[in-house]
Amino acid sequence: MAKKLVIKVTSGADAPERCSQAFTVAAVAVASGVEVSLWLTGESAWFALPDRAAEFELPHAAPLPDLIAAIQAAGTITLCTQCAARRDITEKDVLDGVRIAGAQVFVSEVMAEDVQALVY
Q: How is the chain classified by DSSP, letter by letter?
């Protein structure tokens, strides 16, 4: 069984079910004791900003701010460097605890031993 789960979220409000699934799986994994690294890319990059997750709505889904808080409690949230740059998001703009990192960090995480990677 993998000791770490790396999840890359590529969707946001443009594909709410897929987006919500990624955050839900990450939060459940953290609650289950799995080490989680959640990567925000593409349209999900906006959820690295304060209050943006509160705007996200999906019937019968856990609120995104609650899922983010659960993930941050014991996991890592990373915003893609290029995705941040394309949206003029800087380190001073993001939620506390969110890091900005690039492809080389992502590749090193997914290539590590005992890692399972998912893309949503």
A: --SEEEEEE--STTSHHHHHHHHHHHHHHHHTT-EEEEEE-GGGGGGGSTTTGGG---TTS--HHHHHHHHHHHSEEEEEHHHHHHTT--TTTSPTTEEEE-HHHHHHHHHSTTEEEEE-
pLDDT band at 18 (very low <50, low <70, confident <90, very high): very high
Whether the per-residue pLDDT at 1 is higher than 90: the answer is no
DSSP 48-60: GSTTTGGG---TT
pLDDT digits (tens, 9 = 90+) for 50-71: 999 999 999 999 999 999 999 9
Q: What is the pLDDT of residues 84-105, one digit of tens each?
A: 999 999 999 999 999 999 999 9
Q: Which CATH number fits domain 4-119: 3.90.226.10, 1.10.3210.10, 3.40.1260.10, 1.20.1250.20?
A: 3.40.1260.10
